[in-house]
Amino acid sequence: MADIEMEEDHPRLILHNFLTEDECKELEFIHKSCSTIGYRPNVFSTTLSHLIATNSAHLIIPFLPIRDRLKEKVEETFGCEYELVTEFTGLISWSRGASIGWHSDDNRPYLKQRDFTAVCYLNSYGKDFEGGLFHFQDGEPKTIAPMVGDAVIYTADGRNTHSVDEVTSGERLTLTLWFSRDSSHDEDAKLILLLEENVLHKSNNVPWSLLPLLASNNMYWFSPHQASNQDIGFDIRLGRLHALGFDVYYSRDMNFGSDLSELLMEPMQLARRDQLLDHKFVNVLHSLQIGEYVNLYDEQVAQFYFWEGCKSQAFTNEVQSGKAVRLSRSQSEKITQVNSVFLKDTKLVETVFQSAGQCYFSSATFSAAITEWEDYSCKLHKEILLSLPQWRAHQAIYSVKFDV
């Protein structure tokens, strides 16, 4: 790990290859399968509290060792060992059109508790996105081209005023953390309370469900002008599935003159062109998690290597093996109707999210990826309980029995 040392007047540190490619791909999967509309136009975010609220608390586990390593590095670099708490942890992606002007990270009264910032880049400038260069106003280095695995840490005050150029294509993805000397802003304390309320107490010693729940639908609606404008734009869950090459099919009869927001909570199937996959999913978030997992799947899926080339013949083989069936006209009409409600602008989808291209998944790959995903999810469910004592959880929490 080659470090660029910091200046005294503008304390900052650049860490090359701080994260492995596998770590970056794991976090990318979590973000693409769980994200919601972010805090700025054309920005998407995945927070730890959101993962808990949507029954995906097990996906917090991959963050924990990275958070600890970053906090230790910040404390070592700035000479404040054992003084800091993590104030915020989140995955943040910037799509085409997103940018931010000159600012410091403590530039609002409600942000004054932020003392240090750490930004880890999960993909690369020039390969995964264009634009999105990071600039410091003063000091060296002045400009940083994000590269997968690199991290930048700096003080959150005016000594490190910075900006980010507009993203012109692709999706720029970061893991962003802020650290504070004020223990009242400790993120962990808030997360423990959420885990008690939304996960552990809900279980009552019954094995946890591994299935995600949906948040409020307005947290998923993307519009180029206004997040609440339902006349234009698209639902980002269906949008990401569309970018992967999938459509969503619901078997029940639907009244398209009424509010269909609850439809996305219902069981559904995935379709590809004129073919329907046999596997049934509990809801659209469940299908999105599997879809992204398939997209990242190869022979060593547990290590999250990037997707391998897909063969055009493979999906046809699924039809022949009974894993998929030809869509009927009525089924195709239902898919078209669903898209007319939730994907009002498919060109916008393709502009915002990079497409996986003409990708066809074999039945063996799809089935194996589902099995691997379930195994991975179960493993993380167990690990979340084992990690709770490290978060200073109450005895009542980690005495809850767990079995899957």
Automatic annotation (TrEMBL):
GO biological process terms on file: collagen metabolic process
Domain Fe2OG dioxygenase: 73-181
Keywords for this protein: Dioxygenase, Iron, Metal-binding, Oxidoreductase, Repeat
Upper lineage: Eukaryota, Viridiplantae, Streptophyta, Embryophyta, Tracheophyta
Swiss-Prot/TrEMBL cofactor(s): L-ascorbate; Fe cation
EC number: 1.14.11.7
Gene3D superfamilies: q2cbj1_9rhob like domain (2.60.120.620)
Record-linked SMART domains: P4Hc
Enzyme class: oxidoreductase
GO MF assignments: iron ion binding; L-ascorbic acid binding; procollagen-proline 3-dioxygenase activity
Entry-linked InterPro entries: Oxoglu/Fe-dep_dioxygenase_dom, P3H, Pro_4_hyd_alph, Pro_4_hyd_alph_FE2OG_OXY
Name of the protein in its database record: procollagen-proline 3-dioxygenase
Organism in which the protein naturally occurs: Gossypium trilobum
Record carries keyword Oxidoreductase: yes
UniProt entry tagged with the keyword Iron: yes
